[in-house]
Amino acid sequence: MAIPTQLSECMPDPIAPGTAREHLHAAKTGMRQVKQLLAQPSVENADQSATLLREVEVQLGCVAAMLRNNGTQPDAEFRSALEELQAEVAVLARFLAEGDKLLSGWLQAVQARRGGYTQRGQAAPLVLVNKLTVEG
Length: 136
Hints:
The chain is mostly helical. The chain has one domain (7-114). It has helices spanning 19-38, 43-70, 76-114. The radius of gyration is 25 Å and the shape is elongated.
């Protein structure tokens, strides 16, 4: 069975044996690829990571739908793998959100400084420059 790439592809047979494991495996593979891409930052890698993270979300959605429709509890190994992946996704989400806050704050500080103001909106202190003489 091919691993689905869209949430709608996992719905027709949610209780088929092994399918939830296949989706979990696909999600783990996607997270592994995201980590590799983020270790080598570039615009292309960022775009590809976003696409892969969306696929991880889809795969985890499939797992959740299958477990909900199946009605039985997964075994301890499956549950542990799922919880581990969920924790990885949560850490990555927090890291990206905090990184975005940091960069946004830094950009605001730079813009305020260049505009002649402090972070609090007050005029920045004047910097006196010694008299320069150029001979040539």
